[in-house]
Amino acid sequence: MTFTLHGIGVSKGIAIGKVHIIEHEFLEIPEYCLPKYALKEEIIRFENAIITARQQLYSISKRIPKNSTVDVAVFIDAHLLMLEDSLLTKIPIDLIHEHQCNAEWALKVQSDNIIQAFNSIDDPYLSARKNDVEQVVTRVQRVLLGYPDKSELIVEDLSNMIVLADDLSPADTILMQHNGIYAFVTEYGGTTSHTAILARSLGIPAIVGLRQARPYIKPDDVIIVDGLTGTVIVDPGKRCLRYYRMRQHEARRYRDSLSKIKNAPTITLDGVRINLQTNIEFPEDMLAVKRVGGKEVGLYRTEFLFMNRIEPPDEEEHLAAYTQVINALKGGVVTIRTLDLGADKQIVDNINYTKSSIVNPALGLRGIRLCLKEQKLLKSQLRAILRASILGNVQIMIPMVSGLQELIQVRHIFNEVRTDLSKKSIKFDPDVPCGVMVEIPAIALCIDLIAHQVDFLSLGTNDLIQYTLAIDRGDEAVNYLYEPLHPAVLRLIKISIDAANKADKPISMCGEMASDSRYVRLLLGLGLRTFSVNPESFLEVKKIINDSNINNLEKPSQKMLNLTSQIEATNLLEIINKRDAQL
What we know:
Helix content is 46%, strand content 13%. The protein has 583 residues and is an alpha/beta fold.
C-alpha cells in the first residue's frame, strides 16, 4: 500500500531505491568507583581511546576519493579538532581524579554538560553543533566499551540504496556516499547540522527529522525521497514512479543548464544588472564559492573561530583566516561580519555573561551588545580585519544593531583601533567601509536616521522575521509561524530597501530568504538588487534572475504587501514565479 511520510528536506533532489536500515545502537554507559591506585591506568585507557578515535577519523579521511571536492575533508577535520579540545580531552581526566570514576562515566558527565550549554543556544546553526559533540563522544565511548569501529561496518555495497537511520555523522555520510548511496533519511537532525550541510555539498538528496519512520518502513521497501519537499513515498505505484522518474530527468537537465551559466553575467531579461554574492562560514567554503563562479562574499560569519575552545582567538588567528578568504577571491569584495555570539551562543568560556541576558537569550547580550561590553573581543577582530584590508577589498559588517548610539560607540572604537595601528606604522586601508545588519525591526524603521553613520546595509532575514513575528524559529512548538510572506515582514523589507536607496546607501540581503528560490522574483519586484546566498543556491538564484523581467514583477510584488491570507499570498507567489508574470 502506498503512503507518504513528511520530514525536513535538507538537500534537494529525487532518489528512488530500496531501503537499507541502520539500526539504532544504544550505548549503555556504566558507572563505577575506582580505587586511587587504579586512576592512573584509567586515565591512560581514556587517553588511548582518544588516540584511537583520532586514528579512525584519519583513516576515514584517507578513504575520501581523490576526485571528491576538497572541502568534504573539513567535516572530518571539525571532529578531529574536537578530539584536540581540552573540553573533551582534559576535563574528563579531572573528573576521573575528582570522583574516582571510570572513564566512560567521566566522559558522559562532561558531554552532558556541553550539550546542555548547546541546548540553550538560540542560533540554529550553532545549536546544531551539539550533534557533532554527540557523534565525537559516541566514537570515543565505542572505543572505551570495546565496540568495533563503526566505519569498518559500512563496507557493504550500498549502490542504489536509500539509507534510513536515527542519525548519521559526517564520517558515516562520506563513507556511504563513497559506497554509492542514492539518498538518506534520518529520524533526527536539522537543516544546519553538519550532516545536512555535507549532503548539500555532495549533492545527496536528504531528509531529516522524519520521526518514528522505522516502524513504517521495512528493509528493501522501495521508496521515493524528495529532498526539496521533505517527502518520502513508500511503496509507490507505477504512475507515481513514472512521474518521479520524469522529475529526475527534468532535474538532471536543469542541473546541466545551471553549469552552463557559471561564467555568465547576472542580468535580468530587461537589462538590470544584479549583484550576486555568497555567504560563507569557514575559509574552506571558498572552494565551493569558486566552483560556482562566485566573485564576492556578502557575508563571512566569523563565529567558527570561537567554537570548541576555552580562550577566544587572538589577532593573528583572525588575520590568518581572513587572509585565506581574501587571497582566494583575488580582489572581490569580502564582507566580514564581526562576532555574533552572546548569551544564547556561549561557546567561549572566558567571557562574562550576566544572568539577565540568559533569561531570554534571543533578546539578551549578543552580537554587538556583547562586543561593546567585552571590547577586547571587538578590538582584536577589528585590528585583524584592518590589517587584512591591504590584501584586498574588505568591508566590515556589524550585527544586532538596534540604535544610533551603538553605531556611534562602534565608530569610536573603530577610530581608536585605526589610530593605534597608525601610531605603530602598521599598514591598513583607512577607508574600509563599515555597514550594519538590518535584523531588528527598530533599525529597519529607522534607516533614514542612521544612514549617515554607515556605508552599507544588509538585510538579515533570519532574525528579522523572528523578531518581527515574536517567534523562536528553533522552537518546534511555534516555528510553523515563521513566515517570510507575512505582510509585516515584507513591508519591513520594502521600507528598508526604499530608505537605503533614498539615502544612497547600498543594501543587500544575506539571510536565508535570499537563497530560497521561491522568493527571488518577489525580492526583485520589491527592489532588491544585491543578493548574498549560500554557494549551493548560487547558480539556481542566478538562473532565476537571468530569466526574470523586473518590469513584470513590481506590480504583483507590491500587491503582496497587502495580503493577510497565507493562501492568497502563496497563490500570488506562484503567479510571480511564472516567467514574465503579469497581473
